[in-house]
Amino acid sequence: MNRGRECPLVDPVRAAVYVPPVLRQIPRLLGCLDREPNSVSFGCFDRSHWAWKFHDFPLTMLQINVYPLALLWRVPFPGNPYYQNAQVFGWIVGALASTCRRQRRNGAYDSVGPFTQDHGVTLAMVFGLAETLRLIESEVSSPLREHIIRAIRLGCEFALHSREDYAVITNHQALFAAAYLGAADLLGEDRWRGEANRVLDRIFASQSSEGWYREYGGPDPGYESLGIFYLALCWRRTGSERLLESLQRSIAFYAHFIHPDGSVGGVYGSRHTALYFPAGFEMLSGPVPLAGSIARFMRQRLVHGNVLTPDGSDMENIAPLLYAYLEACLGVPIPAEDGPSLPNESLAGVHHFPQSGLVAVGSPSYYAVVNAAKGGVCRIFSKAPAAVSYEDAGYCVRSENKLLTSQLIGVGSKAESGDPNVVCCETDFAEARQELLTPVRLILLRLLNLTLFRSITIGAWLRRKILAQLILKERVVPMRLRRRFEFTDDSVCVTDSLKNVGGLPIESLELARSFTGIHMGSAKYFHAAEILTTVKFDCSELLHELMQHGEGTIVCTIRFPTGFPPELAASGCGKEKPFPARSES
Question: What is the pTM of this model?
Answer without folding.
Answer: 0.93
